[in-house]
Amino acid sequence: MADWRDELRQAIEGDQSARKSAAETRQAAEERGHAWLVAVVEPALQEVKAELERLGRSAEVNVGTRSASITIRHGGTEELRFTVVADGVRPYPKIRGYDRGRAYESEGTFRSGAQDYTIDDIGKDEIIRKAVSEFRQTVETRRLRGE
Questions:
Q1: Is 34 helix (H, G, I), strand (E, B) or coil?
Q2: Tell me, what's the pLDDT at 29?
Q3: Model confidence, pTM
Q4: For the chain, which ranges sit under pLDDT 70?
Q5: What is the DSSP code (8-state) at residue 40?
Q6: pLDDT at residue 2, rounded to an integer
Q7: Cα-based angle 110, 53, 48 (whole degrees, multiple of 5)
Q8: Cα separations in angstroms, 103 against 12, 13, 23, 81, 98
Q9: pLDDT of residue 83
Q10: Which residues, 6 or more positions from 93, have their beta carbon under 8 angstroms from its beta carbon?
Q11: pLDDT at position 48, please?
Q12: Where are the alpha helices (DSSP H) in 55-145?
């Protein structure tokens, strides 16, 4: 009779050990993601902010534990919030924009094709290009609508 009891105990202990290992792995990935946000994303967004301010826009950069964002305003009105999210080591952009006065949010990708890149593959220049592209699309859409 002891065999089945040992089997149950081993199954439970194995499950608990696997859960603990997964949690530790997730925590390490989140710490790497945050370090990347501070070392790569924040400086990229600060560069965009400086240029926007030179061109007459106001901008604010914020960094949290899982994301970094730049909020761009013109005349006191928010035009765009571009956020880079580090989901562990998987980064993706998130955009909050406005269409005819209504806010919308969307998530995107940094690259087309397979999304198998990590934070190790996305550098400062790519973040700047994506932020500028999203801002340019916002401005062009408003201009085409006569806003």
A1: helix
A2: 84
A3: 0.81
A4: 1-2, 17-18, 21-24
A5: I
A6: 67
A7: 20
A8: 48, 49, 35, 11, 4
A9: 98
A10: 82, 83, 84, 85, 107, 108, 109, 110, 130, 134
A11: 97
A12: 124-145
CA distances (Å), origin 40, targets 6, 70, 82, 128: 50, 14, 15, 10
The pLDDT tens digits of the residues spanning 54-75 come to: 999 999 999 999 999 999 999 8
Contact 86, 71 (CB under 8 A): no
User: E strands along 54-127, which residues?
Assistant: 58-63, 67-74, 77-87, 90-99, 102-107
Long-range Cβ contact pairs of 49-54 (< 8 A, separation 24 or more): 52/135
| Cβ pair 109, 92 in contact under 8 A | yes
Side chain identity, residue 34: H
